Fold each of these.
Amino acid sequence: MALKAMLFLFTTFLVFTATVSSKDEELKEVTYVKEPEPAQPPAKVPVYAPPPPVKTPPSQSPPKAPAYAPPPPVNTPPSQSPPPKAPAPVPPVEPPTSPPLPPVKSKQDCIPRCDQRCQLHNRKRVCMRACMTCCDRCKCVPPGTFGNREKCGKCYTEMTTHGNKYKCP
């Protein structure tokens, strides 16, 4: 149905343009004579001349570079450098001691600690679920967002999943 409507509109358009174009041909028979306009002189365009070349006096020619000659050998005694000094002893670096973690008494104590531990994890719900389980069983959550697992002891570091991967984040 839409094709028939489009075809009808197209034929109507063709008939209308054919009628208008035939009337244009009748109007072309009448011609109007246009009087020529007086010619205007062309506007002057400023022409810029290139700057004159700089002339150098012929008596002064650039000096020629001398051919390469190695410098004359100098007879000096070899310089003696002082013996190298031993590096200063470095005191042993002690790991920063953090205050002992307060004990976890209930599952409610685990929530803010696990939230802090898992805040940067890309799968936060999975991390929170594992952390809550580890916190409930071991009564500890390590500080920071990653690492420091040894701070919570053997229970936290050795807990594994069924696939033998570490469970606690």
Amino acid sequence: MKRTSLVNKKIIITGASSGIGEKVAWYVAKERGIPIILARSRDKLEHLKADILYSFHIDSPIYIVDLLNKQETKKVINEIIENHDPVHGLINNAGIGMFAELSAMNDGDIESMIQLNVTSLIGITKQLLPYFQKQSLAHIVNIASQAGKIATPKACVYAATKHAVLGFTNGLRLELTASSNIYVTAVNLGPVKTNFLHTADPTGRYEKNVARYMLDPDDVAKKIVQQLFIPKREINLPFWMEIGSRIYQLFPAICEKLFKSQFMKK
């Protein structure tokens, strides 16, 4: 299917100050779209805004927001709708991971993961949904994870949040089946070489163990932007990991036994 042009399409991107979000904003602007970038770090967003303006002559609006603050987030989304109508897309990219056994995690870290990865994502989507339903075309992209398909030790809470994102995305897509103007896509990724892993595992052990498998955030962002405004159910990277997840769904006990060492990389 031929993709709708991104020229002048306004796309909200959460967690845009670094990693995948930053790269997605860059490639949206490269295709003459207008990324509306959200994050907590003003300095990083202003730097990205300046780079995009210099490179593509695109003025990318920035919004400083703590997505853990529900009222602050609602206010920012309302401001975006009011100031930048029409808005055409939403990429729910913001997220956090912390790799540890459940018994070693504190309640604050657990709550932060659930709030940012799930509650905020659902809240922003719900707030924008009536608005998107009035547009001729809109696209909601949720960054999930291969962890949403295969849970591993030391990532049970993180996996739970990504299971939730994937379930939410699939359910929402089915709810909107009759509404052909809104596309809903889940992006399921293996490990990506970003600062995400520095927070998830400060020891660097996991990053070292999976170094040869890690995805390039630049390649990931290109793939996401290439699929914007196409009715794509899922983007799964890397491909071999997606095949593995399908086999796992059929033979979970066998896979857990055969690939125990792989599951213990964290």
Amino acid sequence: MTQLAQPEITELSPRESAQDARRTQILDAARTCFARSGFRGASMQEICLEAKMSPGGLYRYFPSKEAIIEAIAQEERCGAAELIETMRGTGPLLDRMMSCAMGYFAYMRDPGACELMAEISAESLRNSEIGKRFAQIDDSVRDIMREVFLEAIETGEMPPNADLDATISMLQAAVDGIALRQINDPDLSLARVEPLLRRLVAGVLGMKA
């Protein structure tokens, strides 16, 4: 009997692992600085101090603050894609949407996450290049939502929608608004949000809660 070849497992070398850890250390420090001081206010020196690294060490990984922002944008893009994928799959559409929203809210409760989101939104209006980077994240989320809704309409789970784009925008505004609200209302727990958001989403989509 012929034995099938086993897939080769590639492990990171200690050097690669250390480099990844240092890169993560820098990006975590940058997120903290950007949430505290803003993209414009945070300096490379501040990021160095937060990361507990020398300027020379930091510049080996990122030659500029813009390069750090680009790396954060890429991580946000990957994270958003992974989270929004929970809307696919089996089970009632409303349950899948709630799972996605609750995962997002949980992530946004991490220290500095809401503040960084607010800074991204503000800087995207001032800086067209940053705006373009983070607009890609928004576009990818909208594309998946549109695909999921069209499938639900086709199967009869969701009634026909005359303006799907506006509906998606309304839902995004509600979810982003709740996430940002956590800054000033830390008692707005996930347990309190879920049943209210479920009814809101069901109403917007014309479904039963």
Amino acid sequence: MKKVISTTALGLSLILGTSSFMSCKQAKSEQATQHSTHQEMAETVKSPSKKSVRTPVVFLTGYDKDQAGYYEGAKKYFGGKNYQLVEGTFAIEEIIDWLNTNATAHPYGDIHIVNNNKPQFGLQLETTVNGTKASAKNLQECIDNGSLPALKNVLTDESKLIFHINELAQNTQLINTLKAAFITDKTPQVIASPYFSVFGGSFSNHYMAQPYYVFYPTAESPGKVDLSKEIAKKYPNEKEIEWYSALTNERERYVGEPYTKQYNVPVTLEIDYKNSDDEIPSFTSNAELISWITNHTELKKEVEKLNIPVHKFRWRYRVKDSQLTITGLSTVLCVLKPITKPYGDLEHVKPDTNNKRLYAMK
């Protein structure tokens, strides 16, 4: 019987950070602060259903490895709102531990989680410290086996988990699993967007963008002309983008100008033939290997989870003892079209989480 194991990998760098606490109210003196705190706690005891909530807290779950300035942009954006910023949390476990450790008599209101992910990988965030990436499957396994800490009763019915994570609203299964990870005696509201959440832009420190994709086997690009024809055919209803120009443009040079982000997506498929009657196959060409993967339902499903066609990967294979390992690498060209106001001065639409055209509540 063949044993099929699939893994996808994308490195997640760590950063040592410090957490800074910013109070939502400043008292004129230490005595006044203590008096205000005692008064609020007394009111909480009298009216437990109307607890005042804390200043919104923002978890910055990565750091910038290039000139994009995504996390620095998020830090500047939320810092300007006097939100409490927390850096150095790179796993769901660390976020929950921080919320439990820093709980007070006042429950959390808005909890923002900022993660500069590649949508094909779900979250660029670990489940537990040094654990697996936080996909729906991996996160559910951590919940089931108890390796993820439980969140204390620190939320209200109005508490919101606001995820600034690219295209998360499209991944219903992952959203439901995240909700389960943060559930207490109250079920938090989850807010996510189907768009890219961009921080640190040239014209706005935070805006949303519509993504469009085209792929090719890494190191085997057909050229920008052919790719522009392919993406135009893929999105026939998008008439505003000049695709060749967008594919050759790496940044927004004027407000609303489409541009392209490029990155690679790896996939690894492992098949153990130790207890199988079948012989380990060999392949004479890449086309033969692609055909073999396509004809094996389990393998094809694993690749399709990435929403990239099998033939858009550059495939390689190796055999060691009884194990066949197949690796693929695809280059992603993601064209981002910033969302701008349809009237008046040309400017980005404000990323208001109450705007149902930009965000969905789950």
